[in-house]
Each structure stands twice: as C-alpha cells, then as structure tokens.
Amino acid sequence: MDTGAGHPSKLGVWILGLVTITAYGSWFYGFGVLIGPIQEDLGWSTSTLGATFAAAQVIAGLGAFVAGRLLDRFGAIGPFAVQALLGGGPLLAATWADSVMVFAVLYAVGGGVMGATGFYHVTTVAAGRLHPEAPAKAIAKLTLIGAFCSPILLPLTAFVVETQGWRIGARMLAVMALVGAVTGSTLKRQAAAEAQTRSDKPVAAMLAALRSPAVRRMFFAYVVGGVAFATIAVYQVPIMTHAGLSLGLAGTLAGFRGLCQVLGRVGLTGALSRWGSAPLLLAAYAVSAGGVLLLLIGEVAAALVFAVLAGAGFGAVSPLQAIHSRDRFAAGDLGLLMGMQGAVVGLAGGLGPLLGGALRDATGSWTWVVIAAAVSLVLAATQMRTPKPVPNGTGV
User: Fold this and answer.
1) Is there a contact between 367 and 235 (Cβ–Cβ < 8 Å)?
2) Which residues are 8's β-sheet partners?
3) Through-space distance between the first and last CA atoms of the chain, rounded to whole angstroms
4) What is the DSSP string of 262-331?
5) pLDDT (average), residues 349-365
6) Which of 179, 47, 61, 153 has its CA nearest to residue 104?
7) Domain 10-191+201-382 belongs to what architecture?
8) pLDDT surpasses 80 at 2
9) Structure confidence at residue 380 (pLDDT)
10) Which of 100, 111, 305, 389 is the most interior residue, by most CB within 10 Å?
C-alpha cells in the first residue's frame, strides 16, 4: 500500500512517529521543563502556568472530535494540515510574550491544537489504517518510536534552556512541531475510513458507543489515569528540583523515564496474544502508581527507580489503551470515536495540572500532588478487572 506522496508503506509509521514525537514534545513534555525558568524570569505562579496547560488540554479535548472526523474523511492531511497552520504558529508567537494573558492564550491555543491533531488518538488510528493486515503491530511500532520523545526532547530542552534561556528553548520546540506537522501532511489522503463504513451521524455513533458498560468503564479508567499522567508529565521536573536535584539532572531523569517507556512496549504484541489488553492495562496502571510514589523519597536513587517503573508503566498504557479501544469501537468511525476518547481524556487530564498546581501553591509542597496522582492510577487499575458476566452479555 502507498502512504501517499510516494512514501512506501514502511515509512508511513515512521512519519507518524515523527509527528507524535514533535507534537507531544512541543508542549506536553516540554512545558514541564519551561515552568521553573518562566517563573524565575517573569514571576508567574505555578497555578497560573498550570491553568495555561489545563486550558490547552481543554482545547485539545474539544478539538479531538474535529481531528478524528478530519482523519476519517480526508486521511492524514486533514488533522496534520490544521496542526501545521494553527498549532506551531501560536506556540512560536507565545515565546515573545511578556504579558501572562498573551502568553497563556497563545500557548493554550497552540498546545491545544497540537494535542487535538497530533496525539495518539490520531496517530494510532492512522497507523492501524496504514497496515490493516496487522494494526496492533503497527500501533505497537508507532508507540515504540514515540517513546523516544521525552528521552530526546526533555534533556535537549533542559540543556537549551539552561544555556540559552527558556524563550530559545520554547522556540526550538515550536519549530520542531511545525516540521513534524508539515512532514505528516505529506501522507495526504491515506488513513481515511472507507466511505461506505463511515457513519453519516457522528453524534449517534458516539452515543451508541457510550451505551456499552465496557466502554464506560474503559473511559473512567482512562480519565482518572489521564489526570495522573498529565500531572506527572507537567510537574515531574519541578518535583525533582524541589527535592534538591539540579534542573539538568531532573530533566535528564525525566528524559530517562521517557526512554524507559520502551520497556513497556517491547514484546507487547506477544503479551497481548497471551493475556489480552485489560489485564495488561491493570498491571501497567499499578506499576505506574508504585513508581510515582517513589518521588516522595526525594533521593536520586529513588528518582531513578521512579523513572524505570513509571516509564515502563506509562509506556505500556499508551498502546494498550489504543488497542483496547480499537476492539470496542466501530472501525468506520474509529477516528471519530478515538477523538471522543481523546476529548474525554484531554478534558479530564487538564484537571490534573490545574488541581496539582493549586494544591502545590496551597500547601507549599509537592507531596499531596504525588499522592493524588498515585491514587488516580490505582483507581484506573480497578476498572480493568474482568467483571462477572451478566445474562444478556452486556456487562463485559
């Protein structure tokens, strides 16, 4: 199969991997490195910057519906062209802002568009459609490539910020995002749904999916897990620097955590064949919770183990959620329904940094932020237990 613009099929997943890395790195991960230096430079509070991230999550959530439908109708060029036009530009413009309001609006819009159009709810669907003969394998490969986002961009951003300042670091991330979006747009119409399988009534398709108890349990797990993931992704660097680590070391350890995501993705196809997605998700959430709690110790060794455990757990969750959802959603509306999932998770995930920032400002400590994130992950794990079947079979 051609992936458009002369790209052989084997390059399609690699291109989607580039889109994923630059979209996540441009603000979701990169913002956590920028928070401390921005506060030092401009004096803005943690809760203000957390609210900026939360606003971006809300925009990403609302935009995920649109991005998913664009993918179903037009293929990869739909969401990635929007990402190139409306994502990277505002992110770049925000780096010149001296007003907190101007910065917050530009960064929230740019980050929100990047999140709506370039995150896994879009790229995993595209990868599966590029390889319909083995969608789970394509998704696992994509997320394995995506695992190199934080190990590359977190330490790189920390280095640039320490040597050149946060504005230069943020500009570097914005330009990378533009490059990734433009490259993704070259896939053109590939990854669109077949017209005859796509529903003409998107609202009805979403409501039909939500009538399933299994989908509702799945969404609850993704929501509370997403709150924790967003909180740790944004605040892991300041949590470690508050414990006494340098910004460079904290950024490196955060990047190492991202590299350890590979541990949760290697051999995933074989594990799925043996155990299925639900038990593996339960284990991934539980391991992540244990890793997050190690941040309470405040030592380099504990932070290193956090990086390994949380990295492996977080790493496994992304592909497992996509594969778990793919088995429960209609194929023709997969982009739309994954967009709905991205919207729910994005909106809920925005609460994590917002509440976490407020909790940090109120208590002067990161302890309760870490505990809240761990509890959220445990709640997510409980929703992956296999329920007892009911007579009509609707409870599974």
Assistant:
1) no
2) 2
3) 36
4) GGGTTTHHHHHHHH-HHHHHHHHHHHHHHHHHGGGT--HHHHHHHHHHHHHHHHHHHHHHHHHHHTTS-G
5) 82
6) 47
7) Up-down Bundle (1.20)
8) no
9) 93
10) 111
